[in-house]
Structure formats: C-alpha cells, structure tokens
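Lab manual, section 2.4: Encoding a predicted structure.

Procedure: take the sequence of the chain (266 residues), apply the prediction step described in section 2.3, and record the output as structure tokens. A sample record is shown.
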Amino acid sequence: MEFEVHAGRAPVFSRTPEEPELSVRVGNATGGMSIHTAEGLWPIDYHGKTNIPGLYAAGDSCSTMQVGATYPGVGYALAGASVTGARAGTAAADYALGTADTSLDMGAVQKVKEKRLAPLDRKGGFGPRWVTQILRNTMIPYFVLYIKHEKRLKAALTFVEFMRDHLVPRLMAKDAHELRLAVETENMVLNAEMKLRASLFREESRGTHYREDFPGRVDPDWLAWVTIREEEGKMVLSKKPVPREWWPDLSKPYDELYINRIPVFF
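Recorded output:
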C-alpha cells in the first residue's frame, strides 16, 4: 500500500474477509517494522542463553531469525515463542538450580531504585504519553520506516536523539501507572534509535527493509545480520555473516535469483 501511495496513486482501497466493503488503506505497516524473531537479544546457544550470565531470551525478545528477512504469515511468531519459551524456561531453571546463593550489592540496588523512581519525584517535565506521541509522529510515517532514504532516516534520527537526550531524562509521572508508561517510553526511544541506525547501516534492500537510495541486492557482503552492541555509551553496529551454506547461487541472473522484488518507482 505504501508503495502505491509513494508513487502518487493514493488513496488505496482494499477489501478483506473481516471488512467486505472497500475501505481506504494507507499505512499501518510501519508501527513496528520488524520481522518477528528478527530482533532482540542474540542467543549464543539453542536454549536462548545470552552473553549476560543468567539471562535467557525467548519469543520476540530472542533473535532466532527463524523466518529470514520476510515474515511468511500468521502463526510463526506464536510457534517460535512456544519453542523458545519452553527451551529458555527449562535452561533458566537449570541455571538457577546450579547457582549458589549470592548477596546483592545494596548500593547498586539503591542506584537502580533511584533511577527507576525518579519520574515520581520530578515536579516538572514531560508526560510519557506526550513523548510517546511525538515519537510516533516521527517514526510511523511510511516514508521513514517502510520506504527509507538516508536523508529521511538521518532527519528522524536527529529528532530521536533529541528525545533521548532532552525529553527522556525529564519524564515525569504522578502515579505508578504513569511510571510504567515512563519506563516504556524510555525503552521505545531506545528501540527507535536502534531501528534507525540499523536501517542506515544496511545499504541495500532486503525483505521488509527497503532503501529508496539502495533499491537492489548486489553486494554478497550484505548476506549478514546486523548486530548492535554498546561501547562506552555508544551504539556500535557490525555484520554477522550468514553461513556460506545458506547462501543462494550467486551465479544466477539477478531476475532469476530474486523473483519477488520491491517495486522501483518511475
């Protein structure tokens, strides 16, 4: 739908079994713009173990890459969550049973408590609902997270960095419910920054990632996953190559190798 709109053929109408009457459809694909199980913590074994001792990931929080770059249909996320949940739950229980009693650093606990409860203590600042709305206004337009271009991604990233540095540190909450919203808003801003940086980093189009300035898939070096790690408070992006045995036959002509391609505008 977004491609039809971008090509100047709006409005777009569609009919579904749930809504048999033709209705206007523009958008809705960019609220999340990620493939289930294609983002989250990178597991280091088949049981959801992460590089943080005692932390196990499952479901959409575990980057299993079970469906590749394009989501094939309804139900795959639930299937993946069931399997990874069972594996991670069992592995986490085994880890807990084999771990000796430990004592907590109460000084560290107090620092975490003060940080998490800070929005309740602020007498002025920004409400989490307002910051969330500003974030949505920045991220959801189809021309940011569905049909991407370096200039628009960088513009959106500038706004998100401003939210990270100036709005998130001043989030305020009047009760426990708003405190929960404030924590979620902070995480949403972090997630948005990761999406934008990853989108800028991958200079090609693949799956649901479409770069208007890089519409093709021509460099085999991009047969890789994008990983993000934190170093000294900064996001550092890198490639993790797909195993060579999973590669397609690159000797085939482009049109034969990639039958299903994203439209190119004229």
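Check your result against the sample. The chain has eight helices and four strands.
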